[in-house]
Amino acid sequence: MTQRDYVVKSVVKALDILEMLDQEKELGISELAEKLQLDKSTVHRLVTTLKMKGYVTQNQTNQKYANSIRLFEMGNRMIEGMGFRRQCQPYLEELAMRTHETVNLAIQDGHEIIYIDKIESRATIKVDLGIGKRLPMYCTGLGKAILAWLPEEELDQLYGETVFKPYTPKTLTTLQALKEALAVIRQQGYSLDDEEYVVGLMCVAAPIWNHQRRPIAAISVAVPEYRFKEGLVTTDYGEVVKEISEKMSRELGCRQENK
């Protein structure tokens, strides 16, 4: 038997509903049915079950549905169980103290990064980049910091057939352009997101290594672009981020410096 023979279609449909609600935030039964190309009665039964189990909530004003906080709580417990975020917390605090900017911690999940911790600065641009947010790796400092040290064959597998969506005029839109950028990152030891995902926001990031010298996460400093233009940034963020990421990596058993 193949893997497909073990797939429970109703479970797949229920997960599709959760993922669509995560993407669209709030939808009614008819909207879900249309977007997922499912029968309304099927969607209604599945949503009713998800609501009964506490995974979705219903807005009593417009009768639409949204994901509940339960999924976040489960993911949060998984991360806490790893102990990784707790290990990283002192270093995030040090980075925030030394830069006075917003700092982020993210891990890779396929083509994306997931924000698993952050410390906000009052000076940053307010964008929807909270804990649990997923972003493409190719247009973020955090993502590129991890991608730069992946084997080339793994990079080709990830992006060989990818259509690169241009989020801003500065987004890298070809695999060749990405590879050239990653070569620069390897040389300097940290990455730069130069308004590639959000206009007006720049990020400097560096990878965190495990004992096998593999990047398992990344940390970043997020800085409003105008602060660079106006000469308000005096700290060499690249060197500071790299220094702290190397401290974190040593705690995880990596003995070789990021060069």
TrEMBL record:
This is IclR family transcriptional regulator. The keyword rRNA-binding does not apply. It comes from the Bacteria. Residues 70-254 form the IclR-ED domain. CDD domains: HTH_ARSR. Signal peptide: none annotated. SMART domains: HTH_ICLR. InterPro entries: ArsR-like_HTH (IPR011991), GAF-like_dom_sf (IPR029016), HTH_MetabolicPath_Reg (IPR050707), Tscrpt_reg_IclR_C (IPR014757), Tscrpt_reg_IclR_N (IPR005471), WH-like_DNA-bd_sf (IPR036388), WH_DNA-bd_sf (IPR036390). PANTHER family: HELIX-TURN-HELIX TRANSCRIPTIONAL REGULATOR, ICLR FAMILY (PTHR30136), HTH-TYPE TRANSCRIPTIONAL REGULATOR RV1719 (PTHR30136:SF35). Keywords: DNA-binding, Transcription, Transcription regulation. It comes from Anoxynatronum sibiricum. The keyword ATP-binding does not apply. Residues 8-69 form the HTH iclR-type domain.
